[in-house]
Write a structure and sequence with these properties.
The structure is a homodimer of 95-residue chains. By secondary structure, chain A is an all-alpha fold. Helix content of chain A is 85%, strand content 0%. The A-B interface holds A 14-15, 18-19, 22, 26-27, 30-31, 33-35, 37-38, 44, 47-48, 51, 55, 58-59, 62, 65-66, 68-69, 71-73, 75-77, 79-80, 83-84, 91, 94-95 and B 14-15, 18-19, 22, 26-27, 30-31, 33-35, 37-38, 44, 47-48, 51, 55, 58-59, 62, 65-66, 68-69, 71-73, 75-77, 79-80, 83-84, 91, 94-95.
């Protein structure tokens, strides 16, 4: 199994568990998976993308409005990620 | 009107427009609002928080599962934002 598929599988399992229980353990899982994403230099929009994939697999009958709404959030994050990368590049030039 | 309320109002209007039309203009709006958030040093989790507020105002009958799912996404972003800030601090120390 490649990394993206493994990440999606893990994220989906944690998300499902959180939806069912809203317990501290699932929140701790969210924190841990997030930290592992950071180590892999995964940008915030990629997490939103993973979230969209997970939620549409868990809820295949999800209303189109909610799917559009998530795509809008993804769009704001893409701009955010791009600007963040520019900022990083500038910082690195200053080093 | 304070800034957060104005941001929420703008985000909600753009989001509603995107849900209704999915047109390029709304996507451009997403890009612009995102850029204005970056200028104000707003972290990604704050955008997710704004998104949650907007979507629950637009869809007050949204299923609890979907609300929980968005809170889980928020949690992953909070960790991400924290780690990002630590990274920034380290970078600044290196300057």
């Amino acid at each position: 199994m490649d990394t993206i598929k493994a990440d999606l599988k893990n994220y989906k399992a944690l998300l499902r568990n959180y939806i069912e229980t809203q317990d501290e353990k699932s929140l701790y899982g969210a924190e841990q998976i997030s930290k592992s994403f950071i180590k892999k230099n995964i940008l915030p929009e990629e997490i939103v993308n993973l979230h969209i994939q997970a939620i549409t697999e868990l809820y295949p009958d999800l209303s189109e409005d909610i799917q559009h709404a998530m795509n809008f959030l993804l769009e704001t994050m893409i701009s955010y990620g791009l600007a963040h990368q520019e900022f990083q590049t500038l910082r690195e030039k200053q080093l």
